[in-house]
Amino acid sequence: MNEVEILSDEILNLSILQLDALREIGNVGAGNSATALSQIINRKIDMTVPKIAIMPLGEVPDVVGGPDAMVAGVYLRVFGPAPSSILFLLPRDSAFYLVDMLMGREQGHTTSLNSMDESALMEIGNILAGAYLNALSHFTSLTLLPSIPALAMDMAGAILSVILIQLGQMGDHALVIETEFTTESDGVKGHFFLIPDPGSLNTILAAIGVKE
Amino acid sequence: MSELIKVGMADYKVGRNPCSLISYGLGSCIGIALYDTVTKIGGLAHIMLPDSTQARSAENPAKFANTALPLMLDEMVKLGAVKSRITAKIAGGAQMFTFANATDVMRVGERNAEAVRMLLKKMDIKMLADDTGGNYGRTVELHLDTGIYRVRTIAKGEKEL
User: Fold this and answer.
1) CATH number of the domain enclosing A26
2) Which end of chain B is flanked by fewer CB atoms within 10 Å, N or C?
Protein backbone atom coordinates (compact mmCIF):
# COMPACT_ATOMS: atom_id res chain seq x y z
CA MET A 1 0.00 0.00 0.00
CA ASN A 2 1.31 3.42 -0.89
CA GLU A 3 0.39 6.34 1.20
CA VAL A 4 0.87 9.59 -0.62
CA GLU A 5 0.20 13.02 0.59
CA ILE A 6 0.04 16.16 -1.40
CA LEU A 7 0.41 19.21 0.69
CA SER A 8 -0.50 22.40 -1.07
CA ASP A 9 2.13 24.18 -2.84
CA GLU A 10 3.40 27.51 -1.83
CA ILE A 11 5.90 24.80 -1.45
CA LEU A 12 8.79 25.93 -3.53
CA ASN A 13 9.62 28.46 -0.81
CA LEU A 14 9.52 26.08 2.14
CA SER A 15 12.62 25.80 4.34
CA ILE A 16 14.33 22.51 5.17
CA LEU A 17 12.97 22.77 8.70
CA GLN A 18 9.41 23.22 7.43
CA LEU A 19 9.75 20.31 4.99
CA ASP A 20 11.04 18.14 7.84
CA ALA A 21 8.11 19.13 10.02
CA LEU A 22 5.65 18.27 7.23
CA ARG A 23 7.43 14.99 6.61
CA GLU A 24 7.13 14.15 10.29
CA ILE A 25 3.42 14.99 10.34
CA GLY A 26 3.03 12.82 7.24
CA ASN A 27 4.89 10.03 8.96
CA VAL A 28 2.83 10.04 12.14
CA GLY A 29 -0.44 10.60 10.26
CA ALA A 30 0.32 7.73 7.90
CA GLY A 31 1.30 5.57 10.89
CA ASN A 32 -2.02 6.26 12.60
CA SER A 33 -3.93 5.48 9.41
CA ALA A 34 -1.93 2.28 8.84
CA THR A 35 -2.70 1.12 12.36
CA ALA A 36 -6.40 1.83 11.87
CA LEU A 37 -6.44 -0.04 8.54
CA SER A 38 -4.47 -2.93 9.97
CA GLN A 39 -7.06 -3.31 12.72
CA ILE A 40 -9.97 -3.18 10.29
CA ILE A 41 -8.61 -5.80 7.91
CA ASN A 42 -6.78 -7.75 10.59
CA ARG A 43 -3.50 -7.87 8.67
CA LYS A 44 -0.02 -6.73 9.57
CA ILE A 45 1.04 -3.65 7.62
CA ASP A 46 4.65 -2.60 7.06
CA MET A 47 5.60 1.00 6.35
CA THR A 48 8.62 2.66 4.73
CA VAL A 49 10.32 5.91 5.74
CA PRO A 50 8.52 8.71 3.87
CA LYS A 51 9.98 10.09 0.64
CA ILE A 52 9.42 13.72 -0.21
CA ALA A 53 9.13 15.03 -3.77
CA ILE A 54 8.01 18.21 -5.47
CA MET A 55 6.47 17.51 -8.87
CA PRO A 56 4.47 19.31 -11.59
CA LEU A 57 0.71 18.87 -11.10
CA GLY A 58 0.35 17.05 -14.43
CA GLU A 59 2.63 14.24 -13.22
CA VAL A 60 0.65 13.45 -10.08
CA PRO A 61 -1.71 10.99 -11.84
CA ASP A 62 1.35 8.89 -12.75
CA VAL A 63 1.95 8.29 -9.02
CA VAL A 64 -1.28 6.29 -8.92
CA GLY A 65 -0.82 4.38 -12.19
CA GLY A 66 -1.61 6.96 -14.89
CA PRO A 67 -4.62 9.19 -15.63
CA ASP A 68 -6.73 6.40 -17.19
CA ALA A 69 -6.20 3.82 -14.43
CA MET A 70 -9.49 2.73 -12.80
CA VAL A 71 -9.65 3.76 -9.15
CA ALA A 72 -12.10 4.24 -6.31
CA GLY A 73 -11.82 7.62 -4.60
CA VAL A 74 -13.22 8.72 -1.25
CA TYR A 75 -13.31 12.48 -0.82
CA LEU A 76 -13.86 14.42 2.41
CA ARG A 77 -13.71 18.07 3.36
CA VAL A 78 -11.90 19.07 6.53
CA PHE A 79 -13.46 21.82 8.64
CA GLY A 80 -11.80 23.95 11.31
CA PRO A 81 -9.09 26.61 11.43
CA ALA A 82 -7.15 24.96 8.57
CA PRO A 83 -9.81 23.93 6.01
CA SER A 84 -8.54 21.22 3.68
CA SER A 85 -9.57 18.34 1.46
CA ILE A 86 -8.73 14.69 1.87
CA LEU A 87 -8.76 12.17 -0.96
CA PHE A 88 -8.21 8.46 -0.48
CA LEU A 89 -7.59 6.53 -3.72
CA LEU A 90 -7.59 2.79 -4.25
CA PRO A 91 -6.89 0.96 -7.52
CA ARG A 92 -10.03 -0.91 -8.59
CA ASP A 93 -8.63 -4.34 -7.71
CA SER A 94 -7.58 -3.19 -4.26
CA ALA A 95 -11.03 -1.70 -3.68
CA PHE A 96 -12.68 -5.00 -4.67
CA TYR A 97 -10.23 -6.90 -2.49
CA LEU A 98 -10.99 -4.70 0.50
CA VAL A 99 -14.76 -4.94 0.19
CA ASP A 100 -14.61 -8.72 -0.23
CA MET A 101 -12.57 -8.85 2.95
CA LEU A 102 -14.87 -6.49 4.86
CA MET A 103 -18.04 -8.22 3.69
CA GLY A 104 -16.70 -11.67 4.49
CA ARG A 105 -16.91 -12.82 0.89
CA GLU A 106 -14.57 -15.03 -1.07
CA GLN A 107 -11.71 -13.13 -2.73
CA GLY A 108 -12.45 -12.29 -6.35
CA HIS A 109 -16.19 -12.27 -5.78
CA THR A 110 -16.70 -8.56 -6.35
CA THR A 111 -16.67 -7.25 -9.92
CA SER A 112 -18.70 -4.11 -9.35
CA LEU A 113 -19.71 -2.20 -6.24
CA ASN A 114 -23.22 -2.33 -4.79
CA SER A 115 -24.41 0.34 -2.38
CA MET A 116 -23.32 -1.65 0.69
CA ASP A 117 -19.81 -1.98 -0.78
CA GLU A 118 -19.76 1.73 -1.45
CA SER A 119 -20.74 2.46 2.14
CA ALA A 120 -17.99 0.16 3.36
CA LEU A 121 -15.36 1.96 1.27
CA MET A 122 -16.59 5.35 2.43
CA GLU A 123 -16.35 4.13 6.01
CA ILE A 124 -12.75 3.05 5.41
CA GLY A 125 -12.02 6.51 4.00
CA ASN A 126 -13.69 8.02 7.04
CA ILE A 127 -11.65 5.99 9.51
CA LEU A 128 -8.33 6.64 7.74
CA ALA A 129 -9.09 10.35 7.51
CA GLY A 130 -10.02 10.42 11.21
CA ALA A 131 -6.80 8.66 12.18
CA TYR A 132 -4.76 11.04 10.04
CA LEU A 133 -6.50 14.15 11.35
CA ASN A 134 -5.97 12.98 14.91
CA ALA A 135 -2.23 13.07 14.33
CA LEU A 136 -2.43 16.46 12.64
CA SER A 137 -4.63 17.86 15.44
CA HIS A 138 -2.21 16.51 18.01
CA PHE A 139 0.78 18.25 16.38
CA THR A 140 -0.97 21.54 15.75
CA SER A 141 -3.48 21.76 18.63
CA LEU A 142 -5.99 22.70 15.91
CA THR A 143 -9.44 21.10 15.95
CA LEU A 144 -9.92 19.53 12.52
CA LEU A 145 -13.15 17.71 11.70
CA PRO A 146 -13.93 15.66 8.57
CA SER A 147 -17.19 15.99 6.60
CA ILE A 148 -19.19 12.95 5.57
CA PRO A 149 -17.38 11.15 2.73
CA ALA A 150 -18.33 11.03 -0.96
CA LEU A 151 -17.33 8.17 -3.26
CA ALA A 152 -16.53 7.93 -6.98
CA MET A 153 -15.28 5.02 -9.09
CA ASP A 154 -13.66 6.30 -12.27
CA MET A 155 -10.44 7.24 -14.09
CA ALA A 156 -7.63 8.35 -11.76
CA GLY A 157 -7.02 11.57 -13.70
CA ALA A 158 -10.68 12.52 -13.48
CA ILE A 159 -10.86 11.92 -9.74
CA LEU A 160 -7.53 13.61 -9.06
CA SER A 161 -8.62 16.63 -11.11
CA VAL A 162 -10.83 17.59 -8.16
CA ILE A 163 -7.80 18.20 -5.94
CA LEU A 164 -5.32 19.16 -8.65
CA ILE A 165 -7.58 22.03 -9.69
CA GLN A 166 -7.54 23.27 -6.10
CA LEU A 167 -3.75 23.13 -6.13
CA GLY A 168 -3.66 24.71 -9.56
CA GLN A 169 -5.20 27.89 -8.20
CA MET A 170 -2.10 28.35 -6.06
CA GLY A 171 0.73 27.10 -8.25
CA ASP A 172 2.03 24.53 -10.68
CA HIS A 173 3.63 22.03 -8.30
CA ALA A 174 2.57 19.59 -5.62
CA LEU A 175 4.52 18.47 -2.60
CA VAL A 176 4.13 14.72 -2.37
CA ILE A 177 5.05 12.88 0.80
CA GLU A 178 4.94 9.22 0.01
CA THR A 179 4.97 6.30 2.40
CA GLU A 180 4.70 2.79 1.11
CA PHE A 181 2.45 0.41 2.97
CA THR A 182 2.56 -3.28 2.32
CA THR A 183 0.32 -5.95 3.70
CA GLU A 184 2.14 -9.17 4.45
CA SER A 185 0.55 -11.41 1.83
CA ASP A 186 -1.42 -9.53 -0.71
CA GLY A 187 -1.31 -6.38 -2.69
CA VAL A 188 -3.71 -3.87 -1.28
CA LYS A 189 -2.54 -0.52 -2.57
CA GLY A 190 -3.85 2.87 -1.64
CA HIS A 191 -3.00 6.55 -1.83
CA PHE A 192 -3.90 9.18 0.68
CA PHE A 193 -3.88 12.90 -0.18
CA LEU A 194 -4.24 15.87 2.13
CA ILE A 195 -4.72 19.20 0.37
CA PRO A 196 -4.87 22.35 2.50
CA ASP A 197 -6.99 25.20 1.10
CA PRO A 198 -5.11 28.42 0.26
CA GLY A 199 -3.71 29.79 3.52
CA SER A 200 -4.20 26.59 5.51
CA LEU A 201 -0.64 25.38 5.04
CA ASN A 202 0.56 28.58 6.72
CA THR A 203 -1.88 28.03 9.59
CA ILE A 204 -0.52 24.51 10.07
CA LEU A 205 3.13 25.63 9.92
CA ALA A 206 2.43 28.48 12.35
CA ALA A 207 0.65 26.11 14.74
CA ILE A 208 3.65 23.79 14.91
CA GLY A 209 6.01 26.74 15.33
CA VAL A 210 7.99 26.53 12.10
CA LYS A 211 6.56 29.55 10.30
CA GLU A 212 9.36 31.72 8.92
CA MET B 1 -2.03 3.47 -37.36
CA SER B 2 -1.34 7.18 -37.33
CA GLU B 3 0.70 8.82 -34.62
CA LEU B 4 -0.99 9.39 -31.26
CA ILE B 5 0.07 12.59 -29.48
CA LYS B 6 -0.64 12.72 -25.75
CA VAL B 7 -1.83 15.89 -24.13
CA GLY B 8 -1.26 16.04 -20.37
CA MET B 9 -3.18 17.97 -17.76
CA ALA B 10 -2.58 21.73 -18.08
CA ASP B 11 -1.07 21.30 -21.51
CA TYR B 12 -2.01 21.69 -25.19
CA LYS B 13 -0.70 20.20 -28.44
CA VAL B 14 -1.31 20.97 -32.09
CA GLY B 15 -0.81 18.72 -35.10
CA ARG B 16 -1.62 17.98 -38.69
CA ASN B 17 -3.15 14.88 -40.30
CA PRO B 18 -2.13 12.04 -40.11
CA CYS B 19 -2.17 11.97 -36.34
CA SER B 20 -4.54 12.00 -33.40
CA LEU B 21 -4.44 14.06 -30.23
CA ILE B 22 -5.50 12.32 -27.03
CA SER B 23 -5.97 13.33 -23.41
CA TYR B 24 -6.72 10.76 -20.71
CA GLY B 25 -8.93 10.99 -17.67
CA LEU B 26 -10.57 14.41 -17.76
CA GLY B 27 -12.73 15.13 -14.74
CA SER B 28 -13.62 18.72 -13.96
CA CYS B 29 -11.04 19.86 -16.52
CA ILE B 30 -12.15 20.64 -20.10
CA GLY B 31 -10.71 19.18 -23.29
CA ILE B 32 -11.05 21.86 -25.99
CA ALA B 33 -10.59 20.55 -29.53
CA LEU B 34 -10.03 23.03 -32.38
CA TYR B 35 -10.05 21.88 -36.00
CA ASP B 36 -9.68 23.25 -39.51
CA THR B 37 -11.44 20.86 -41.92
CA VAL B 38 -9.57 22.00 -45.03
CA THR B 39 -5.96 21.78 -43.86
CA LYS B 40 -6.80 19.03 -41.31
CA ILE B 41 -4.82 20.90 -38.68
CA GLY B 42 -6.08 20.57 -35.13
CA GLY B 43 -5.29 21.29 -31.52
CA LEU B 44 -6.30 19.86 -28.17
CA ALA B 45 -6.04 21.74 -24.87
CA HIS B 46 -6.58 20.16 -21.45
CA ILE B 47 -7.35 23.17 -19.27
CA MET B 48 -7.82 23.06 -15.48
CA LEU B 49 -9.18 26.50 -14.66
CA PRO B 50 -11.25 29.14 -16.43
CA ASP B 51 -9.34 32.33 -15.87
CA SER B 52 -5.70 33.19 -15.17
CA THR B 53 -6.61 36.59 -13.75
CA GLN B 54 -8.39 34.96 -10.80
CA ALA B 55 -5.50 32.67 -9.87
CA ARG B 56 -2.59 33.37 -7.57
CA SER B 57 -0.10 31.81 -9.91
CA ALA B 58 -0.20 32.13 -13.67
CA GLU B 59 3.14 30.58 -14.53
CA ASN B 60 1.78 27.97 -16.90
CA PRO B 61 -0.50 29.54 -19.52
CA ALA B 62 -1.72 26.11 -20.67
CA LYS B 63 -3.49 25.68 -17.33
CA PHE B 64 -6.13 28.33 -18.02
CA ALA B 65 -8.76 28.52 -20.76
CA ASN B 66 -8.24 32.24 -21.38
CA THR B 67 -4.48 31.91 -21.92
CA ALA B 68 -4.25 28.41 -23.48
CA LEU B 69 -6.78 28.97 -26.25
CA PRO B 70 -5.16 32.03 -27.94
CA LEU B 71 -1.74 30.32 -27.80
CA MET B 72 -3.07 27.13 -29.34
CA LEU B 73 -4.94 29.05 -32.03
CA ASP B 74 -1.75 30.97 -32.91
CA GLU B 75 0.22 27.75 -33.29
CA MET B 76 -2.44 26.28 -35.56
CA VAL B 77 -2.41 29.38 -37.72
CA LYS B 78 1.40 29.17 -37.91
CA LEU B 79 1.04 25.61 -39.20
CA GLY B 80 -1.25 26.88 -41.93
CA ALA B 81 -4.76 26.69 -40.47
CA VAL B 82 -7.17 29.51 -41.33
CA LYS B 83 -8.78 31.11 -38.31
CA SER B 84 -12.18 31.71 -39.88
CA ARG B 85 -12.52 27.99 -40.67
CA ILE B 86 -11.58 26.75 -37.21
CA THR B 87 -14.36 25.22 -35.16
CA ALA B 88 -14.45 23.88 -31.60
CA LYS B 89 -15.76 20.85 -29.72
CA ILE B 90 -15.55 20.62 -25.95
CA ALA B 91 -15.88 17.83 -23.38
CA GLY B 92 -15.31 17.41 -19.65
CA GLY B 93 -16.41 19.70 -16.83
CA ALA B 94 -17.77 16.91 -14.64
CA GLN B 95 -18.48 17.10 -10.94
CA MET B 96 -16.83 13.92 -9.70
CA PHE B 97 -18.12 13.98 -6.13
CA THR B 98 -21.59 14.94 -5.02
CA PHE B 99 -22.25 16.62 -1.71
CA ALA B 100 -25.58 17.84 -0.44
CA ASN B 101 -24.28 21.38 -0.09
CA ALA B 102 -21.83 21.68 -2.95
CA THR B 103 -19.45 24.57 -2.43
CA ASP B 104 -17.75 26.56 -5.16
CA VAL B 105 -14.77 24.25 -4.85
CA MET B 106 -16.99 21.37 -5.96
CA ARG B 107 -18.69 23.15 -8.85
CA VAL B 108 -15.49 24.00 -10.68
CA GLY B 109 -16.38 21.73 -13.63
CA GLU B 110 -19.55 23.66 -14.32
CA ARG B 111 -17.71 26.97 -14.03
CA ASN B 112 -14.99 25.72 -16.37
CA ALA B 113 -17.52 24.73 -19.03
CA GLU B 114 -19.36 28.04 -18.83
CA ALA B 115 -16.12 30.02 -19.06
CA VAL B 116 -14.95 28.06 -22.11
CA ARG B 117 -18.27 28.61 -23.92
CA MET B 118 -18.09 32.35 -23.28
CA LEU B 119 -14.46 32.49 -24.34
CA LEU B 120 -15.16 30.69 -27.64
CA LYS B 121 -17.96 33.14 -28.32
CA LYS B 122 -15.67 36.08 -27.55
CA MET B 123 -12.96 34.70 -29.83
CA ASP B 124 -15.59 34.16 -32.53
CA ILE B 125 -14.94 30.42 -32.81
CA LYS B 126 -18.02 28.36 -33.64
CA MET B 127 -18.73 25.54 -31.18
CA LEU B 128 -20.02 22.44 -32.96
CA ALA B 129 -20.39 20.09 -30.00
CA ASP B 130 -20.56 20.28 -26.22
CA ASP B 131 -20.38 17.18 -24.02
CA THR B 132 -19.89 18.63 -20.55
CA GLY B 133 -21.23 18.00 -17.05
CA GLY B 134 -22.24 14.75 -15.41
CA ASN B 135 -20.34 12.99 -12.65
CA TYR B 136 -17.98 10.82 -14.66
CA GLY B 137 -14.50 10.99 -16.20
CA ARG B 138 -13.80 11.21 -19.93
CA THR B 139 -10.90 10.33 -22.21
CA VAL B 140 -10.97 12.45 -25.37
CA GLU B 141 -9.35 11.91 -28.74
CA LEU B 142 -9.35 14.28 -31.71
CA HIS B 143 -8.91 12.49 -35.05
CA LEU B 144 -7.26 14.87 -37.48
CA ASP B 145 -8.25 12.93 -40.61
CA THR B 146 -11.97 13.53 -39.98
CA GLY B 147 -12.23 16.06 -37.14
CA ILE B 148 -14.17 13.51 -35.13
CA TYR B 149 -13.84 14.08 -31.40
CA ARG B 150 -14.23 10.74 -29.64
CA VAL B 151 -15.25 10.75 -25.96
CA ARG B 152 -14.76 7.55 -23.96
CA THR B 153 -16.14 6.93 -20.48
CA ILE B 154 -16.11 3.94 -18.16
CA ALA B 155 -19.80 3.62 -17.34
CA LYS B 156 -21.49 5.82 -19.98
CA GLY B 157 -20.05 4.29 -23.13
CA GLU B 158 -18.38 6.08 -26.01
CA LYS B 159 -19.54 8.86 -28.31
CA GLU B 160 -18.36 10.64 -31.40
CA LEU B 161 -18.80 14.37 -31.54
Assistant:
1) 3.40.1550.10
2) N
- B48 to chain A: which residues are within 8 Å by CB? 57, 161, 164-165, 168
Q: Indicate which residues of B carry an active-site annotation.
A: 29
Indicate yes or no: CB of A158 within 8 angstroms of CB of B105.
Answer: no
ipTM: 0.88
Tell me whether residue A212 is in a domain. Answer: no
- Kind and range of the H or E run holding A137: helix A115-140
Distances (CA, A) of A123 to A41, A88, A135, B49, B99: 13, 11, 19, 31, 16
Does residue A111 belong to any structural domain of this protein?
yes
Of B24, B48, B155, the CB nearest to A68: B24
Q: Is A171 on the interface with B (CB under 8 A)?
A: yes
User: Any bridge partners for residue B5, and if so which?
Assistant: B21
Q: pLDDT, tens digit, for every residue of B132-157?
A: 999 999 999 999 999 999 999 998 89
In a domain, A5, yes or no: no
Can you give the pTM of this predicted structure?
A: 0.87
d(CA B150, CA B161): 6
Task: Chain A: give the shortest CA distance to residue B24, in Å.
Answer: 6
Domains in chain A: how many in total?
1
Q: State pLDDT tens for residues B9-67.
A: 999 999 999 999 999 999 999 999 999 999 999 999 999 998 888 776 667 889 999 99
Q: Which of B11, B2, B161, B15 is nearest to B88 (CA)?
A: B161
CB contact under 8 A, A158 and B48: no
The answer to whether A41 contacts chain B (CB < 8 Å) is no
Q: Which CATH class is domain B3-160?
A: alpha beta
CB A85 within 8 A of CB A166: yes
Domain that holds residue A168: 12-207
B49, B54, B94 member nearest A158 (Cβ) = B94
Q: By CA distance, what is B61's nearest residue in A? A: A172
Domain map of chain B by residue range?
Answer: 3-160
